[in-house]
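In this supplementary section we document a worked example of the pipeline. Step one takes a protein sequence of length 204 as its only input; no multiple sequence alignment statistics are reported here. Step two produces a three-dimensional model, which step three serialises into C-alpha cells for compact storage. The input and output of this example are shown verbatim.
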Amino acid sequence: MDQPWSQDATNIGTWGARNFEGRGVGVLVEWQNKGFHSFGWLSPIHLPQERNIRSSLHGGDIYVHCNDIKEPRLGGIFTFVLYNDRQGFGAQDCEARSVIRFAIPTTSMSSLRLPAGEERPAKSHLRQSLFYPQMEEQGITLRRYLWEDSLQILELWGHPEAIITAADDLNLLQTEVEVLLSPQMARRRLADRRYLIGPLSNAG
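The serialised model returned by step three reads:
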C-alpha cells in the first residue's frame, strides 16, 4: 500500500554518491524520451522534513531517470525517495498513485469537510490547482482545480482503499457528485469491486 509522504524511506542513508532524505510526493511535469537515457522532472508537492529545494537547478524540480520510474505519465502523481548528490536533487523508487476525480456542483461545496490548510506548491506548472498537505498524513494527495464553473473538480490520489476512506472523511460520499475513474482504476474496479462502495458502486 502507498505510504504517507512523511514516513521515512526504507534504507535511508548513503548509497554510492546518493544521500537519501526520505519519501516525497510530486507530479511529473516533463519527460524526455531518449531510450535507455530517458529522464524527466517531478515538481514537488510534499517533501520530507519540509525540505526546501526551490533554490536548486531546474526551478526546484526533481530529476528522475527512467531506471527509477515505471510508466512515466505526464501529469501523474508519484511518491518517491528523495536523494541528493553532486548534481542536485533526484527521485528514485517512484510509485504512481491511482486517482479518482469527483465533479461536484459549486453550490454543494459548502457541505464538504475540506482541510483548513491550502497550498500551491507547484504553481509554476499547475497554476489552477490547490493542494491540501494535511491529507498526505493519510497517504492521499488532494487536488482542487480553481476553475470558475458550475462544477468543481476534486482529485484524490493514493491507494484505492485509502481514497475511499478519505472520500468518506471529506463527506464526498454523502454529497451529490459524479465520479470519474481513470482507465487504471476502471480496470481495477472490474478485477476487484471491494474498492468501490456506497455511491461509488454506480460510477461509470
